[in-house]
Design brief:
rod-shaped
Length: about 120
């Protein structure tokens, strides 16, 4: 701002112009800034509401998937009970004894009187 240092008259004129224009310019900026701020807040609220809806829909979808999986597990269990087998049962997987190398015949910790395990894969 070398111009203002060397020329006292230009500095005074710029100060007076700012003093005259500022009262006219500030209300205009305020008048325009309020609608801008209002639209930004409105957009933020709308984004918040849409994201809440999306999260709620995703939660409902996951609840549906969990309910379907549980219903299928109950059906498998009922079918396995009707067949007299233990393959579809979720409780058959609760017995987690160490199995050594994975071959029940070679595992010394399993007694000969214990019931054989089901080697089926749950689908």
């Amino acid at each position: 701002m070398r111009i203002f240092k060397n020329n006292f008259v230009v500095g005074i004129a710029a100060g007076l112009a700012a003093a005259v224009i500022a009262p006219l310019l500030i209300p205009a900026v305020k008048k325009g800034a309020r609608p801008l701020a209002k639209s930004l807040v409105k957009g933020g609220v709308m984004l918040y509401e849409k994201s809440r809806e999306a999260v709620a829909e995703a939660g409902e979808m996951m609840e549906d998937v969990v309910a379907e999986v549980r219903a299928e597990a109950v059906e498998r269990h009922a079918a396995a009970a009707a067949d007299g087998s233990d393959e579809g049962s979720l409780s058959s997987q609760s017995d987690h004894r160490p199995r050594g190398d994975g071959n029940d015949r070679n595992n010394e910790s399993q007694s000969e009187t214990s019931a054989p395990r089901s080697e089926g894969v749950i689908t």
